[in-house]
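A brief tutorial aside. Many learners find it easier to grasp structure tokens once they have seen a single protein encoded end to end. The record that follows does exactly this for Plastid lipid-associated protein/fibrillin conserved domain-containing protein. Read the sequence first, then the structure, and try to relate runs of similar tokens to stretches of the chain.
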Amino acid sequence: MATKLVQPASQVPPPVTRITKIITSHKSFLAIHPWTRNTRIDDGFMPIHITKVAEKSSGLVGDNKEMEQHEKDSRTVSQIKEDLYQAVEGINRGIFGIPSAKKSEIHGLVELLESQNPTPDPTLNLDKVDGCWKLLYSTITILGSKRTKLGLRDFISLGDFFQKIDVSKAKAINLIKFNVRGLNLLNGQLTIEASFKTSSNSRVEISFENSTITPHQLMNMFRKNYDLLLGIFNPEGWLEITYVDDNLRIGRDDNGNIFVLERS
């Protein structure tokens, strides 16, 4: 009996329940650990590095999208401008609204150009802004009852939009052309005069001065809703010049509107 009591501890087999717990613990550990092991438990752990398939495969959808985005971002400024010119074709400057997909396309191109602005301090280089510009695209829209009240659904159509900037006088003149059907193709325009002053290296503050509509027949048509018309096209507020080169200018105003203009 005494001999059995002093038997060495190393010869005493570990409890079966303890072994079961250890094996279970290893299985649980392997299930969530980024290393795996051989299928035979008693072979121990085998370190195998697992690499994401998406990182090696160039045929996956995610990879294709990343490659396409990289290609877009690597386009030259002239290529982006050409794409923008094509995107704004046939949309009447966006004044009567455009599909969301087209809007996203245009805004994406605008942002790409803004990120590569060759004139980061435009108000310190106002010679780049001086002259006459033609509006290609704007997020200002005339929809629903506004369009009906202004007669822009039926007998009055919009012509070109021009902006003349005289840096020497710190003046800006907006010209909005109109065509009236049924009155011997009467043509007229709304003229809005404003002054501006620089407030930062890229921003100008604009103050409305006066407006006129010519000829008087056109004024008679708009008289009832003149405040509505002026409220749409009044440039008062601030304008951030986000991109300008020798023939293209992009700006954003304090109402979140975007303007894309081409030198005329």
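Self-check: The chain has nine helices and eight strands. If you spotted this yourself, you are ready for the next section.
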